Amino acid sequence: MPQRRAITGRSQEPRARFAEELRLLREERHLTFRALAAQVGWDPTLFSKMEKGQSLGGPETVVALDTFYGTGDKLLTLWELAKADPTQFKERYRQYMSLEAVALSMWHYGGSVLHGLLQTREYALELLATGGLTHNEVEQQADARMDRQSLLDGECASPFRVILSEAALRNSLQDAQMWRRQLEHLVMLSERPNITFYVLPFGAGLHGLMDTAVTFLRLPDGRTVAYVETVVSGELIEEAGPVEDLQRRYDAIRDAVMDPAASRKFILQMLEEAPCEPST
User: What is the pLDDT of residue 93?
Assistant: First the structure.
């Protein structure tokens, strides 16, 4: 049976519905993006991207629009629905990967999991299998992850600076030999001139990016964007203010890490201590 169209004629897909409501409210007041920005703040290009569905903006922006338009918390409610829409996770990830491919440099903090560009295929398969995917989906995503790793190859590969939490280095695979190969892979990567590892030890304590993975990309147009990921969602952040806040949190962590030489030594020590026989 075909889907019924909404009586209002408006989109029922959360992100499109949010974008459409933004456009209608602005057009009802005969405002240009520049005029709206003059009244509310923020860059006019952000409002353009929000109406095109290219960005959701941040909660502060949406609350300011609700206040300006006198719509109570209507826009914030639509924003929350759009942000929570599971169909948007893949789209945001695709946007991130397109930017990752052209980034001039990358830096990352990964919490308890290794970044996809650092994973062996065995690690990727075991990690992806925990997410409720089918066997074929796990295989396809692992293959795609391995293909992405070509970004780190070659003399012109972009610099990649990674803070490895001790938690990520101790969350081993079930098979001991597979885990040794992952540690060996990290040691091999640490020898590349474009890759720098910094280990964040348990002793560093609590910090501002607990249970969060964040990757910063410096783009050819001079912008820096951030991709923040949890176990169930991901968000590409392009607004300067939120990106700067994440950078401050990252910088605070960086003050507590081991230097590259000590970090490499730490990984080598873990490799020496790793069991040689398969786990039972």
Answer: 73
Which residues, 6+ apart, have CB-to-CB distance to 96 below 8 Å? 215, 217, 227, 234, 236
Q: Is residue 169 over pLDDT 50?
A: yes
Six token digits for residue 152: 């780190």
Q: pTM of the full predicted structure?
A: 0.67
Residue 279 domain-assigned (yes or no) = no
Q: Are residues 142 and 194 located together in one domain of the fold? A: yes
Residue 100: strand, helix, or coil: helix
Q: Domain check: are 182 and 202 in the same one?
A: yes
Residue 211, Cβ density class (10 Å: 0-12 exposed, 13-18 middle, ≥19 buried): exposed
pLDDT for the residue 85: 61
CA 185/CA 274 separation, integer angstroms: 14
Q: Copy the structure tokens of residue 109.
A: 């903090």
Instruction: Give CA 163 to chain center in angstroms.
Output: 15
Residue 197 phi/psi, 5-degree rounding, is -105, 140
List the domain range (segments joined by +) for residue 41.
14-84
